């Protein structure tokens, strides 16, 4: 579990994160949502150590990441997997070599063991037949699946995903969501996903934190969103007329069932 307590982050005179406290639970897909500029990306960067908070705590199973020295943070990051918005694969390496990269860097396995582990991860994302291909020879959705395989190669306790469905069509996005959700439960990972995708929110959002102007405005489950009376959350999630109609229909159904 990851806990953040009274987290603040400022850049000069501009306060971007304002007294955020939250927990991200093991074995669940924890989603951070919010408008562009709300502070959610800055929050994730504070969680993984790309930025240092102005004040507050970031606890990994009780270990305060903020107070760790450089070597301790390096060791801590070996427990983290990361999936970037662009997939961030190495163009000069084939699919198998991309997945092997963190194993080459951080594991004590021999070459045969590293290759076997990478192939296991590719099989988990249904890409074992693509192991000899290079990134520019596969689709954007396949690249994201390679990125997932690479992120889980070191058996991370914590998995961070930055807009994993960015640039993907709805069908492929669903595949990525199902993979992340399945892997989270299968390996009991604390998964944190920074997303704008409302399909992801409603589909796999087991714990959702909504950031508004640097503050935690709301938290709950996807099933709670339909009944939420928080106007800021409602305006954000149900921005389209179709989603607004879905919420209205759900509210009307609840009223009928309760009458």
Automatic annotation (TrEMBL):
Molecular-function GO terms, alphabetical: ATP binding
Residues in ABC transporter domain copies: 2-238
Keyword terms: ATP-binding, Nucleotide-binding, Transport
PROSITE patterns: ABC_TRANSPORTER_1, ABC_TRANSPORTER_2
InterPro entries, alphabetized: AAA+_ATPase, ABC_transporter-like_ATP-bd, ABC_transporter-like_CS, P-loop_NTPase
Keyword field contains Lipid biosynthesis: no
Signal peptide (from-to): none
KW Transport (keyword) present: yes
Source taxon at top rank: Bacteria
Cited Pfam families: ABC_tran
Name this protein carries in UniProt: ATP-binding cassette domain-containing protein
